[in-house]
Specification:
The chain has about 220 residues and is α/β, with parallel strands linked by helices. It has one domain: Rossmann fold, CATH 3.40.50. It is built from seven helices and eight strands. It has helices at about 25-35, 60-70, 80-85, 90-100, 115, 190-195, 210-215, and strands at about 10-15, 40-45, 75-80, 105-115, 135-140, 160-165, 170, 175-180. The chain has an eight-stranded mixed beta sheet with strand order 3-2-1-4-5-8-7-6, sandwiched between helices. The radius of gyration is 17 Å and the shape is globular.
Length: about 220
């Protein structure tokens, strides 16, 4: 498939545990969506993330919270593909799934934080997915001192050309890794879970709809 063709729909794929989803996730996704002119961004809650602690909350609850978070935001959708797949949630399978779903008429943009990207050499089927998708790597508080040229694993760095103006790396396949700054939100799901357990205020971190869902279902208590 020709990259950056006007005929190819630019699809954002935003995976994570979302335990729970919060304003940091949603606002970053809005920024990325607008900056890259994506036609749609799909949130993909993981079932069992291979490189993170198993979520404390059942995947069905996390899925419902993300659905509540994007309610009324037409450019966002939620997919349960990693949940119904069962077992470990591997990103290469997710990318393959959406390319098949859209009959290879999309240009995928896989969205993730710099903290996750720095572990990418440990992912299953690394480095295969650099030939299958663009990546949008979002900077985060605590990682701002990392230079762009230092984010690539050393064993594949020679496969990329760096564009200083765009702050991006072009892979030999034609896909890109875009290293971007988004508005910093020093919010973490871990902190939110702790605050809820201690009955502390979280209205500035998550929406009222999600907080109500959490209370009704006795999550994080």
């Amino acid at each position: 498939m020709e990259k950056n063709s006007e005929k190819n729909l630019k699809l954002g794929l935003f995976g994570g545990t979302f335990d729970p989803v919060h304003y940091g996730h949603i606002n970053a996704a809005k920024e990325i969506h607008n900056r890259f002119n994506l036609f749609k961004t799909i949130f993909i809650p993981a079932h069992i993330p291979p490189h993170k602690k198993i979520p404390t909350t059942e995947s069905a609850h996390r899925l419902e919270m993300v659905k509540l978070a994007v309610l009324g935001l037409d450019v966002f959708e939620v997919s349960d593909t990693e949940i119904i797949r069962d077992g470990n949630s591997y990103s290469f399978q997710t990318i393959e799934y959406f390319k098949k779903l859209y009959k290879n008429k999309i240009e995928p943009f896989f969205i993730l934080g710099i903290d996750i990207f720095l572990e990418i050499s440990t992912w299953k089927n690394y480095p295969y997915f650099f030939s299958e998708s663009n990546f949008i790597v979002m900077n985060r508080p605590g990682y701002t001192s990392i230079k762009p040229e230092d984010i690539l694993p050393s064993d594949i760095a020679s496969e990329f050309d760096y564009n200083h103006e765009k702050n991006s790396f072009k892979h030999k396949s034609g896909y890109y890794i875009h290293y971007v700054n988004v508005t910093p939100y020093d919010i973490s799901s871990t902190d939110i879970r702790a605050k809820i357990k201690k009955k502390q205020e979280t209205t500035s971190l998550i929406s009222d709809k999600i907080l109500e869902y959490i209370k009704i279902n006795h999550l994080y208590t």
